[in-house]
Amino acid sequence: MRNFFFIGLLCCSPALYALGDSYSAENCSFNAGDISAPVTLTCSNLDPDIQKSLNEFLKKAQETQVESRRSQKQLNDTLELKDSRIEQLRKEAEEWINRYNSLSKELESLRRENPDYAEILTKAEAFLKQGKFSEVAALLEPLKTKGDEKTQQNAKVHFILGQAYRLDNKPVQALPEYEAAYHQDFKNIEYGLEYAELLQKQNEYKKAQRLYEGLLDELKQLSESEQQEKQETLLAVMGNLALIYAETQKREEAEKLYQEALKIVGELAQTNSHSQVFIPEVTRLLNNAASLVASDPAQREEAEKIYQYLLYIDEKLAQTNPQVFLPDVATSLNNLANLVAKDPARREEAEQDYRKALKIRRELAQTNPQVFLPEVATSLNNLSGLIASDPARREEAEQGYREALKIYRDLAQTNPQVFLPEVATSLCNLALLYIKSDE
User: Fold this and answer.
1) Cα 187 to Cα 18, 151, 157, 222, distances in angstroms
2) For the chain, what is the radius of gyration of the CA atoms?
3) Would you tell me the crossing angle of helices 205-220 and 189-201 to the nearest 10 degrees?
4) Backbone φ, ψ for residue 158 (5° rounding)
5) How does DSSP classify residue 272?
6) I need a labelling partner for 238 at 20 to 30 A (CA). Which of 124, 159, 388, 394 fits?
């Protein structure tokens, strides 16, 4: 594996950097406001009612992030995965918009196939456009076939119900609908993928793993032309399954899957065939692969090459759309610095990357403090932790820690559940610095 990743990345180089125009998150911008308020999005291509529903979903997603903070921190410590809050929210928004578009198409398709249900489904489509997902589900529930009858139409109804519940942020209700859809139409891999992804989000890793493994077998048995049509699905299945393997201490299996996935990425980039739609999936794969490799000291050189390539992609994309991709540049710089800083001989290089990330985040925070001030504090803590090892620079480190502490204290006044733990961490950083100064 040690040499494979970089070879795969070299294969990707000709095409990937030019793929930003198709990333739908470009139509959305994060809103500035009170730093304690939930982050919201404004998307130029969404109707006002749908925009409102998306932001309600994101608000609940941010509340969920609070609840999962401790378990996520444990995962980050294991894999050195440093995903920024902004990146997590953008992923949530991208998935939500895609799911909404999918549901709209599925409803239209079901209406055309079933003229007898035209009135009900027309009402459902109207409710969908108003963002009234509970009403959509209520209209569709009676359309489910009773008993064990397995038909593609019944599977579609279950799947549409699952999508409606997901948009309404009701994953518990969505799970049995996805399960029923897939079990009634095993040939529909998209049904299985949605079901597996939700199981994974609900931390039901064993069920999700079995499902992903089955989906991967099905995809590999397709003809070459069919596989070409399912490349994005194949990458998603491989990436998600590899992440489960990594989270459940199955490192070798995870590495093997990342190898296969990055080989596909390289082939796509060489042919430039549909590759522009895969940028979110590609960057996610690269980040997760780098995180896994970086956790092995013997493979840090390969991890560094992956992070450097990610930085290269992000910088290219940021040239044409800085609002969307500058946060990714800062995250890649931060990840690269975290890795390089482990080599005492390269701390100056790590410091430069930390400072670049901090500069970007400060500039972003000027116009959007609610999103980026926490990222500024993270960069300050990282930079201060690095320079604190130099006795001559401990005063400088103290200033950085104190600035981070002030940011977290201000944030904690109105959002203590999220930011009080960060206040405690910052206080500990200062205490350790003072102890070192007294030695």
Assistant:
1) 34, 12, 16, 11
2) 23
3) 160
4) -60, -40
5) T
6) 159
Of 208, 207, 305, nearest to 262 by C-alpha is 305
pLDDT at 259: 85
Concatenated DSSP letters for 119-151? HHHHHHHHHHHTT-HHHHHHHHGGGSPPTT---
Output the CA torsion sign for 349, 355, 358, 359: negative
Task: Express each pLDDT in 43-75 by its tens digit.
Answer: 666 777 777 887 777 777 666 654 444 444 443
Q: Which two tokens stand for residue 304?
A: 């560094």
Question: What is the Cα–Cα distance from 386 to 344, expressed in whole angstroms?
Answer: 10
| In the chain, % of residues over pLDDT 90 | 46
pLDDT at 439: 59
Contact predicate 38/54, CB 8 Å: no
> What single letter denotes the amino acid at residue 310?
L
* Cα gap 384→396, rounded to integer Å: 8
- Cα 264 to the chain's mean position, in Å? 20
Return the pLDDT at 202.
Answer: 92
DSSP annotation of 41 reads E
Does residue 400 have a pLDDT over 70?
A: yes
Which helix (DSSP H) or strand (DSSP E) does residue 432 occupy? helix 416-438
CA atoms of 233 and 334, how far apart (whole Å) = 30
Number of alpha helices (DSSP H) and beta strands (DSSP E) in the chain: 20, 2
Question: pLDDT tens-digit profile of 304-334?
Answer: 988 998 898 889 888 888 887 898 899 999 9
Which of 322, 279, 329 has the alpha carbon at shortest distance from 307?
329
Q: How far apart are CA 101 and CA 103, in angstroms?
A: 5
Handedness of CA 346, 422, 240, 136 (dihedral sign): negative
CA distances from 50 to 104, 128, 253, 373 (A): 12, 8, 40, 28
d(CA 407, CA 226): 52
Closest CA to 175 of 157, 190, 155, 196: 196
